[in-house]
Amino acid sequence: MAEFTEHYHLKKPEDAEYYDVADFNGNMDIIDAALAGNTGGAEAADKIGEPADALPETVFGKLNGYISADGKGVRVIKSIQRTVCSNTGSANNVAIRPVDPERCIVLTERLYNSSEYLLSYSYDLKADTLTAHVSGGSTQSCRIGFWIIEFY
Description:
By secondary structure, the protein is of the alpha+beta class. It has two domains: about 70 residues, no CATH class; about 70 residues, Immunoglobulin-like (Sandwich). Helices cover about 15% and strands about 35% of the residues. It is built from two helices and eight strands. Strands 3-8-5 form a three-stranded antiparallel beta sheet, with no helix packed on it. Strands 4-7-6 form a three-stranded antiparallel beta sheet, with no helix packed on it. A two-stranded antiparallel ribbon has the order 1-2. A hairpin with a 6-residue loop joins β1 and β2. The longest helix is centred in the first third of the chain and has 18 residues. It is globular, with a radius of gyration of 18 Å. The two termini are about 20 Å apart.
């Protein structure tokens, strides 16, 4: 049975459970609502900032903006980093700042795709490496962006 975070009631699946995309989407809706309701909506978060930020103008500041009953701030996100992988016909190994893969989510974005090239992609996240596997139907190029978000 899944557990929930104390403050935002985000669903945390157990290690032996399969991860349900609906749970992930539900967590993202809760985070989005908390960010939008904090100070001025999503458009106010125009920069990422630093993990210790308390400024509501940054993404970290919005996420760290929850104040617990004892008056202390609560930090939710430890780090955010972004990398881009291009198809080279084999796995792309990209060095990243060290993370705990068990405490991360990875969001992807298609940055460039020439004429229906991309058929599929997947990735493996290790402590200091992201390996992207891109498959396609021709020798044209494709670029995928990866946002690695590590939680406390």
